[in-house]
């Protein structure tokens, strides 16, 4: 059997004549004789054949991918096998980069997703319940942030997604309609990173003003610029503000960056649980003992599930169809989508009910995911609210409260290359859902207690965020998986 590099070289000459995107060149139809009178035969011969079928899978919207892949994978693969540098035309720079400060409006980008006008396009965004697949929206927003950041940085750099800030839904979307994606750089202090704020809203007709209720969600991505040769962080233009509103966005980004640094210093990896959290752990431990004490009448309720039983895991080979614009690494939006949909499945399996998405906590992409590697994802229900044991130590199963539970799911992501045995952590992802059931998760081991406390902190921080943002609705919305 020919080696992969040999096969690539054989295929390359035929592929060089193709464009960077899948073509739909029409193959010539056979000529019909004048004596043919069968209308059905004529109809069959008039059908157009294409070299590639229209995409019906879950990919990024075409309006965000026109320049995403400047070379076919087979060419990038050949360069990689030959030990050459694989880089796109965007990273080539023959002179000094322009670091002149830029305005927010310089990076603004807007795209309309015509779901209402194009039923076939909506096929790639709709789930079996007739709702929008939020994971696919996440993919598009990551692609949008890539377009926005390159407008700000200019050529000569490689940008990667470093993190995603908290995502919360602003208003429900109960119908399928055209959506408007928009985004711009809202924080860049002259270092190597930039914050891109993205919005999804109901698209209005030309000339029709938008309304506050049109806004669906707002989120921010953190992008980092790297030197294409050294792969080290490189500075980008700083941002200048022209209006008080822009200055407010800039200061919010600066405050967010400081808060993230402070949060890292107070994480459970750095400091032990405080007195209140330690007391809660002790109460839960005592309750477990009581559940299994034959001399006591209390037994573990059927709606209380051990944390170890809530885990769902997947492993998948990363294929080149989901690579990013730098050719050899997986697109961050695809990674985000996979973690979200696994978290949804874990919440559904835990509650035996359909979850409704509430929010996603900030997450950081710690390591890239190479094409051809194996991505391992493990989702765990880490916390439920109300808790299995209330703050006063009582049992958390009040019959007077409505059966609605907030479920916090943590997804751990690791990547392992085929040729090596070691796995690298690529990030942790945290999602909160509501389920129409009274169900609780119960930790047992020390590691599970730490996950429980960490998720509890995140849940409380999210509640404070919603209280500070009146436009964020408190209930669920019609967006699920």
TrEMBL record:
Biased composition (Basic and acidic residues): 84-101
InterPro entries per UniProt: HOTDOG_ACOT, HotDog_dom_sf
CDD domains per the UniProt record, alphabetical: BFIT_BACH
Compositionally biased tracts (Low complexity): 29-40
Top-level taxon of origin: Eukaryota
Ranges for domain HotDog ACOT-type: 102-229, 308-439
Keywords in alphabetical order: Hydrolase, Repeat, Transit peptide
Disordered: region residues: 1-40, 81-101
Family membership noted in the UniProt record: Belongs to the acyl coenzyme A hydrolase family.
Protein name as catalogued: HotDog ACOT-type domain-containing protein
UniProt organism field: Sporothrix stenoceras
